[in-house]
Automatic annotation (TrEMBL):
Pfam families: DUF6458
Protein's UniProt keywords contain Membrane: yes
Keywords: Membrane, Transmembrane, Transmembrane helix
Gene source species: Kribbella voronezhensis
Protein name listed in UniProt: DUF6458 domain-containing protein
Residue intervals passing through the bilayer: 29-48
Amino acid sequence: MRINVGILLMAAGAILAFAVRDGSGPVDLTVVGIVIMLGGAAGLWFSYRVANQREQEEITLIKPGIEEQYDTTPHEYVIEEQIDVTPVEYQPGHSPEQA
């Protein structure tokens, strides 16, 4: 049952339950309309649950090859030399005229 059928059943049930006033037969149309509306609501709920089922699989957003390029885990080896990250203009022996 799709969403359209559920909405159609709810509308038809509402018409029977609230708009039609016929008490001459052995069937109470208000009760029939409410039952049809409940069937439409159940159909809407069921179609929503079926349409939004999620697989228990892991979703891969980034391809593994690309993810390896941007790996940020620290390396196992230790750098023996210190790296000087001081800007050139603040290093000793630099004068403004050299720039």
